[in-house]
């Protein structure tokens, strides 16, 4: 067992943990980063599968993600726009496939009016929500004790309008059924992106990608930290007191003045805390759970859909693949479609064997793009639900009533232990931008505490 002493031990080498470690070391504190996996990046992972470069995890950059954009500039990384020329596709409640341009789906006038009214109502409510304190809204309790689905149905009797608006948050973002989370949780999701309209606008929320892959952010941060990053080091015990912390991994023990827990709060149970976490924290973590989505990558010899004047963007709350996009890698002649299978539908297809699941998913893509979609040269499913150190995707969210009850305590330090993760973010919630913001905030809090201790 190797034992080392540092000012700060950071548990988790995702964007949040590495940002915190980088900021702390830049300010003169010594750090050790312990990562359970054999790689850095957490839910960011750019990999080569059968000769195709794929973004297994997060990948998109939007204009409001200023913390991420600043980091990309600092690291010298460039972006390129998602392909969006041509028509998008939508399959409605009647089963008909329609081409369209713009943001609003090609639905009947009545449904379009209902969707427009719902979006306006949600935008108005979102404007009243502080993403860092949604529980402070005057109607927080009422909004947090009604499911998003029930709230939508109370606003509109148009079933297709409700299904489409639910799609933007439930399947596309929180990756849970709309009956499983509250209206307040949905408003936090919208407020974290600036408005509900931003969630509706795929050209905004899925604006750009990073040349070479988004995992370069943690890779380059880790490169700057060098030997202070320890891979294959799952922390199984964290002893803490006013005097500091001791983090124990199988072959490494780190003594430090402070710790940063930079992992999803749903994974805290993997660590034995001595003494146990305070009662409120113990309760809080029992009301958080990960969503679940399968990210499907299908690579073809060429982007054939472009020949038909299609952008590759497709939506339907009634299809197995509820959304799909042209995800062709920068500089690549082959074409890639990325599709998403979410929540209950993801559960259902994992009852099938791998070949049948692939057939079902490719059939769903073919319902948008035609028979050629059934024949990719590379096929891969990102299944974060079975990944030991993640256990779901994209992020953790509260059950009904949990956000207003426990949200104010989600980011509160526990003695010398500070918390940083995109699951805890306000602005940038569940995105890399939020992870960077939380990493910066944890580092700033520790620096303040260290200076106060030195002054005493």
TrEMBL record:
SUPFAM superfamilies the record matches: FAD-linked reductases, C-terminal domain, FAD/NAD(P)-binding domain
Broad enzyme group: oxidoreductase
Amino acids binding substrate: 340
Gene3D superfamilies: FAD/NAD(P)-binding domain (3.50.50.60)
Occurrences of domain Amine oxidase (ranges): 16-447
Source taxon at top rank: Bacteria
Molecular function terms, GO-annotated: putrescine oxidase activity
Cofactor(s) essential for the protein: FAD
Keyword set, alphabetical order: Oxidoreductase
EC number(s) per entry: 1.4.3.10
Keyword Lyase assigned: no
Transmembrane segments: none
Binding sites annotated in the UniProt record for FAD: 35-36, 235
The keyword DNA-binding is assigned to this record: no
Endpoints of the signal sequence: none
Any Pfam family hit: Amino_oxidase
Protein name: Putrescine oxidase
Upper taxonomic lineage: Bacteria, Bacillati, Actinomycetota, Actinomycetes, Micrococcales
């Amino acid at each position: 067992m190797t034992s080392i002493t540092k000012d700060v031990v950071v548990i988790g080498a995702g964007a949040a943990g590495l940002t915190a470690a980088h900021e702390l070391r830049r300010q003169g504190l010594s750090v050790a980063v312990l990562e359970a996996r054999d790689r850095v990046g957490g839910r960011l992972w750019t990999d080569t599968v059968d000769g195709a470069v794929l973004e297994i995890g997060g990948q998109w950059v939007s204009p409001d993600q200023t913390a991420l954009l600043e980091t990309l500039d600092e690291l010298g990384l460039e972006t390129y726009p998602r392909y969006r020329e041509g028509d998008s596709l939508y399959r409605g409640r009647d089963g008909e496939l329609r081409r369209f341009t713009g943001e609003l789906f090609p639905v009947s006038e009545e449904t379009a009016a209902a969707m427009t009214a719902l979006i306006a109502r949600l935008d108005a409510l979102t404007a009243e929500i502080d993403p860092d304190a949604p529980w402070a809204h005057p109607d927080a309790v009422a909004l947090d004790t009604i499911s998003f689905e029930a709230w939508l149905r109370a606003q509109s009797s148009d079933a297709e309008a409700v299904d489409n608006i639910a799609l933007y948050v439930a399947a596309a973002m929180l990756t849970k059924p709309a009956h499983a989370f509250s209206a307040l949780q949905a408003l936090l999701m919208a407020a974290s992106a600036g408005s509900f309209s931003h969630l509706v606008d795929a050209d905004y929320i899925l604006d750009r990608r990073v040349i070479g892959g988004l995992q370069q952010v943690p890779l380059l941060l880790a490169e700057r930290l060098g030997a202070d990053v320890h891979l294959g080091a799952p922390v199984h015990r964290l002893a803490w007191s006013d005097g500091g912390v001791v983090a124990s991994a199988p072959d490494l023990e780190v003594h430090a003045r402070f710790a940063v827990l930079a992992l999803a709060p749903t994974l805290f149970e993997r660590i034995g805390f001595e003494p146990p976490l305070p009662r409120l924290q113990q309760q809080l973590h029992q009301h958080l759970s990960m969503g679940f989505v399968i990210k499907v990558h299908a690579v073809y010899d060429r982007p054939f859909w472009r020949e038909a004047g299609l952008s590759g963007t497709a939506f339907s709350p009634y299809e197995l693949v509820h959304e799909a996009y042209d995800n062709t890698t920068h500089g690549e002649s082959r074409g890639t479609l990325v599709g998403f299978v979410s929540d209950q539908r993801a559960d259902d297809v994992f009852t099938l064997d791998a070949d049948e699941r692939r057939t079902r998913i490719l059939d769903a893509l073919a319902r948008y793009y035609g028979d050629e979609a059934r024949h990719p040269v590379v096929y891969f499913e990102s299944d974060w639900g079975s990944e030991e150190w993640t256990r779901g995707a994209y992020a953790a969210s509260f059950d009904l009533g949990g956000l207003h009850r426990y949200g104010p305590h989600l980011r509160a330090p526990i003695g010398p232990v500070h918390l940083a993760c995109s699951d805890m973010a306000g602005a940038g919630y569940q995105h890399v931008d939020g992870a960077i913001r939380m990493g910066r905030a944890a580092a700033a809090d520790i620096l303040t505490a260290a200076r106060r201790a030195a002054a005493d």
